[in-house]
Amino acid sequence: MKTIKPILVVTIVLLVAVLLFTINTFKTETVYKKDINEYGDFKVLSAAGTEEQKNTIDVTGTYTAYADPDKVDIYLGVQTDSLDASESQQQNAVIMKKIRDGLLSKGVTSSSIQTTQYSLEKITEWDDIKRINVDKGYRTTQIIKIKLTDISKAGEVVDVAVENGANRVDSIVFGLSDNKAKTMRTQVLTEAAKNAREKVDAIASGLGVTVKGVLHASEGYVGVTSYSTKNYAGGTMEAAAVPTEISAGQIEISASVSVSYEFA
Fold first, then answer.
1. pLDDT for 184-239, tens place per residue?
2. Hey, what's the torsion of the CAs at 149, 150, 154, 157, to 10 degrees?
3. 200 CA to centre of own chain
4. Which residues contact 186 (CB under 8 A, 6 or more apart)?
5. Roughly how many angstroms between the first and final C-alpha of the chain, as a whole number?
6. β-bridge mates for residue 221, sequence order
7. Distance CA 232, CA 160 (A)
8. CA atoms of 9 and 77, how far apart (whole Å)
């Protein structure tokens, strides 16, 4: 009996140790699952540990607005041809100076005039008889951009430039200033988001379900479409007999917002 008692005591101690280990392991697993449920990357886990799928309705809201432009960029310039490269450049420089001086006399500031293109190239012409390209001299092209905040002066500026020798009017682009563009972008994004809400409410009503809230949303597209007119010319342009009138039109600003809603 003296030998059996120590063995019995050891057995009881081992059983108690195993039981305590099992209880602690169970508690640890329970706490781990609870932590995942409450804090794990916004995921809801089922009892089996798998991610629970939410019921969602995905919609895209859109909106388009129109605004009057408050700035205009005019691209115009001079193209001069000559048999001599240096002469072509000199002629171009003389005419461009007259154009700049004419613009300054009408109140256009020097900071509003920017050179956007300058090139000197050889002119060639295909000879069908000789079957070769024949040199015809050199062409110098200089284009400037004139930035105006008073869009009503666009026609007058074009007339002054042509009167002083401009023979190219490449484009006239109406747009929005940075401040006005920012205001309009905010407006169309707000209205696009409202449009998304109107769509999901209509869908939920038709399905007989209730919208619980927004799961996530993202900006899709915000665009400002500038209005432009283009007139390409070369050689000699005659000064207008009557003042040139240029209509600005309106600027289109559009936006889209994609939203995922949860429903029950």
1. 999 999 999 999 999 999 999 999 999 999 999 999 878 888 767 665 454 445 55
2. -90
3. 27
4. none
5. 71
6. 256
7. 17
8. 107
Q: Which amino acid is at 35?
A: D
pLDDT at 108 over 70: yes
Measure CA 228 to chain center: 18
Q: Contact 186/239 with Cβ under 8 angstroms? A: no
141 neighbors 118 (Cβ within 8 angstroms): yes
CA dist 166 → 61, 136, 137, 173 (Å):
47, 22, 21, 18
- Residue holding tokens 């004139």? 146
Distance separating alpha carbons of residues 234 and 80, to the nearest angstrom: 9
Query: Which position has the token pair 């895209």?
Result: 60
Nearest to 251 by CA among 66, 57, 77: 66
Chain position carrying tokens 């920017």: 114
Nearest to 220 by CA among 189, 250, 264, 243: 189
Q: Using an 8 Å Cβ cutoff, are 112 and 41 in contact? A: no
Residue with tokens 């707000």: 190
Question: Model confidence over 150-165: pLDDT tens digits?
Answer: 999 999 999 999 999 9
Task: Tell me the C-alpha distance between 152 and 72, whole Å.
Answer: 9
Q: What is the pLDDT of residue 221?
A: 79
